[in-house]
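Entry type: protein chain
Record version: 2
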Amino acid sequence: MEFKISEKQTSSKVASGELKIKFGYFLKTSFEPIHLVDYEAGITYQRSIHRTDLIDQILNRGLVNSIVFFNDWINDHATHNRKLAKAVRLEIVEKKKKSDQDTVFYDFNRPLSWSDFREKPSRTSGYNATIFTSLAMEGSPFMEEGVLVLPVEVKVYMLPESSWAKTQGKSDYALNHEQRHFDVTRVVGNRLINRLKALEVTPENYEAMVNDAYFNSYREMNRLQEIYDARTRHGLDKDAQSRWNSIIDQALNGNMDEIERELMKGNSKVYVYPPSYQYRITYRMVSASSTTGIY
């Protein structure tokens, strides 16, 4: 609360003045208070120079007017202001995305082909092929009858213009190895969806919890990609590749037991790529990528 009084004596018996007041209303949380709204008003008055009690009356009137204003503000904003949300409802959005020349979205009915690898191959690379896959999460929250609805869509895709293959490396076997990198990203996307569904979110913690879930999945994606390449020796070990084909198929069908075991065993040579991410004020959108290949 702030107030300022300016007065001047207009006659031997009368003083005139102006009172300026400002009340700030905040929402108490477990963390920092959240600012809701300010009330500002100015009151002019005249008083007998002997009536010093009039100032208290004017301040009390200002306080009452402020409370009436705040009560009206709450009634007007309760159903649509996110700061006043009583609860959070997280909804997973799953819709089929149409692929184009720039982006190939993961689709069980649309496996990769070598035509999806359109970048010019690196002459200095020891790999015969490299795929760039990505995991993104986005959504735009909105209020519905006092509840913050948080729709979240998890997207899994690869970028053709960042993926390449040398002519001598284009075999069905090599394409399967690259497809499995894409599948691994889909598996991690599915695991992220399961994490999101299990979250107990509140108006105070939903942003932190959703973003933590994403970044945990981001780190898991990079670990799993590296583990897959390490176990199969980038596809050179055909027996290991066959085993991982089965592990990934099981995970795509919802059985994560083998994936969990592999993550528990880990890989001492795992390198986690630094994240590339963007934020959207509408909610939060983060995307990460991993680059992998086959010799």
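Comment: The CA atoms of residues 132 and 273 lie 12 Å apart.
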